[in-house]
Amino acid sequence: MATAAATCWFTALTSATGPSRYSLTSQRFFATTLRRHSHLIAPNSETNQNAETHAAINPNRKSRTSKKPLPSSPRKSSAQKEAIGQRFPGTSKDEVHFSRADARSSKTVRSQRNQPVAFKSFGLQKKGNKGGNNVFDIKEQQVETGNFQDAAFLNAVVKVYCTHTAPDYSLPWQKQRQYTSTGSAFMIGDGKLLTNAHCVEHDTQVKVKRRGDDTKYVAKVLARGIECDMALLSVESTEFWEGAEPLHFGRLPRLQDPVTVVGYPLGGDTISVTKGVVSRIEVTSYAHGSSDLLGIQIDAAINPGNSGGPAFNDQGECVGVAFQVFRSDEVENIGYVIPTTVVSHFLEDYERNGKYTGFPCLGVLLQKLENPALRACLGVPSNEGVLVRRVEPTSDASNVLKEGDVIVSFDGIRVGCEGTVPFRSTERIAFRYLISQKFAGDVAELGIVRAGSFTKLKAVLNPRVHLVPYHIEGGQPSYLIVAGLVFTPLSDPLIEEECEDQIGLKLLTKARYSLAKFKGEQIVILSQVLANEVNIGYEDMSNEQKQLQVLKLNGTRIKNIHHLAYLVDSCKDKYLVFEFEDNYLAVLEREAACSASARILKDYGIPAERSPDLSESYVDSLGVNHPVEQHEFGDGPVSNSEFGFEGLLWV
C-alpha cells in the first residue's frame, strides 16, 4: 500500500519575548526574526489517491490565470500537497520551522503580527533530494522499556483515525478532496477523551482504537480549542470503556524532571514510548492556534502520530499533551507538550460554558522599558513597567487605557521592564502568562503610571477579535456571487491557499497589521470573476489586478460580507456600483445582473449564489445610524515600528 506524505510550510510571526504555538508553537507576538535553515515535517496522510503523491512531488500551484479550475473540479487540500508558499513578502528562506506531531499537515499561521516564522505539521521528514522520487527519513526513537511496558495506565492511550474534508477557500461553495490521518488520544474519565485540535480539524469521521484491540469505535468531537490546540472527544459505545481507567493529571514539572511520551507515531501500529527530560518551561507560540500560551519543551522524541498523546512523569501522572516539534539543521530533540495548566483551562472553560470560548487577551501593544532615560521621561520611578503603544478598539481596555500609559502591575503582581513577571520561586515568565490564566469575562486590576502618577484601573478580558481570522468558525467560508463577481471575506486559510503574489502586498499588509474597529468587521475581497456577458470587461480584474478589497456599494461603506449581501438585496437603484481599493470601479445593471445569476450558477455548476449564513436576516452590529469614518474599515494605520521591533509585544 502506497503512503503519500505531504509537507506544508507555514509562516507565522514571532515576538522576541515569547515562544511559539501549535502542535508546534508559533510565536505570534514576538518581534525578533529567527533565521535558521530548518526542516518541517508533515503529518501521516493516509490515502489511496494518486493525486496526493503528485501533490507531494509538485508543490507549486499554478497562477490564477492558468489555474482556474471548473468550480466542480476537486482540488488538493493543504494537508495533501507540499506548499512552499511563504506567508508574506520579504520573508527569508532561512527560517525557524515548527512541526505538528500528528498525521497530517497544518495551516499557515501568523504570530501576533510581528515577525515571520515557519511552522509545519508532523509527519514524514523529506530528505533534500532534487526532483525525481521523494526520499523520506523516519526518525524514530521509540522504545518500550522499563516499568512503562506493562503499566496499566498505557491502556488509557488510544489511536485516533480521522477523515478530514477541508473547505476550498478559493472556491468556497465546495470542499477539498478528502484525506485521512492518524494521531493519539487518552481517556480522562466520564466517557471522554483528549487529543489535539489539529488531529480532528475539518473532521467528517473520527474513530478510535484501544491498545490491543482490533475494533475501531466512532467518536464525536465535543469541543475544539483552536488556540490551545486541544479537542474533547466522546465515545458512546459501552464496550469501548470496559475495564478502562482514566489518566490522572499531575503538577507542572520542574526542569530536568523525567518525562515519558506515549502515543502511536510513525513506524508501526503498536503503542510507542519515548523518554527524556524537561528542558524548558515558558510561554510558547502554538502553531495551530496562533497564540502564545505556557508550553513545556522536552528532549524526548516526538514523531508524526504522537500528537494528542500524553506525557507522563515517573509517578504515571499525565503532565502534558504532545503537540509539536522544532526541526532544524542546527538543533535536535526539541519537542513540545501542552502543560496540564493549559489543559485544565480548556476543560474548565468547556464545563463553565458548555462550549469552548477561548483564552482572553488584554488587547494592547506593549513596548519594553529597559532604557533608564525612557523610564525617567515617562515618570516611572523604578525598574519596572511596560509602555502601552496601541490599544485594540474592540477590547475593553480601550475604555480605560490610553497610549502612553505604563502598566506596572497586573492583579497586584509587579511587571518587569522587560515584560516579565515572577514565576515559581526563582524564574520569570512573559507577562501574558498571567492573562492566559484568566477566563473570558474575568476582570483584571491594572496598576498604571499615567503622566507620572500611579493609579489602578479595572478591565474586562475577552478573546481577541481578529480582522482576518486564523480559522473559520463553522468550517465553511462565506461567499456571495453577484452576476459572476465572487466576494468572500479575507482569511488566513485563503491567504495560505492562494499564491502570495495573487493576494497582493496591500492586502497582506492589512491582514498582518490592521486591527478590527468593531466586532464583526471583515475585509471583503473580489475573489474571482466567473466570465459572462453581463460582466464583460471585468473578467480579468481578479487576475491582472490581483484580488481587490471592495470598499463601497452605491456609496455605502461595506462592513462585512453579510452587510454586502444586505446592500445588494435592498438596492432599488438602476445600477450596482462597486468601488474597490485603488479607485477601481465595477458597474452592473441591477436587473440584468439578477436575471443572469441563475444562468451563471448553472454554467459553473455552483449550487447557490450565496453561502447559507448569508440567507439569515442581517443585524447591524453598529446600529443603523452609526457614523462611518472614511478609513474606518480595514484601514488601520501601520507604523514602521511594528515591523520586527524586538521591544514590542501584543498581550
From TrEMBL:
InterPro entries with a match to the protein in the record: DEGP_PDZ, DEGP_PDZ_sf, PDZ, PDZ_sf, Peptidase_S1_PA, Peptidase_S1_PA_chymotrypsin, Peptidase_S1C
Compositional bias segments (type: Polar residues): 106-115
Biased composition (Basic and acidic residues): 92-105
Domain PDZ, chain residue ranges per copy: 363-415
Superkingdom field: Eukaryota
Region feature Disordered, mapped onto this chain: 41-116
Coiled-coil parts of chain: none
Alphabetized UniProt keyword annotations: Hydrolase, Protease, Serine protease
Bias type Low complexity, positions: 68-77
Family matches, as SUPFAM superfamilies: PDZ domain-like, Trypsin-like serine proteases
Similarity comment: Belongs to the peptidase S1C family.
Protein name per Swiss-Prot or TrEMBL: Protease Do-like 2, chloroplastic isoform X3
Species of provenance: Coffea arabica (Arabian coffee)
Source taxonomy: Eukaryota, Viridiplantae, Streptophyta, Embryophyta, Tracheophyta
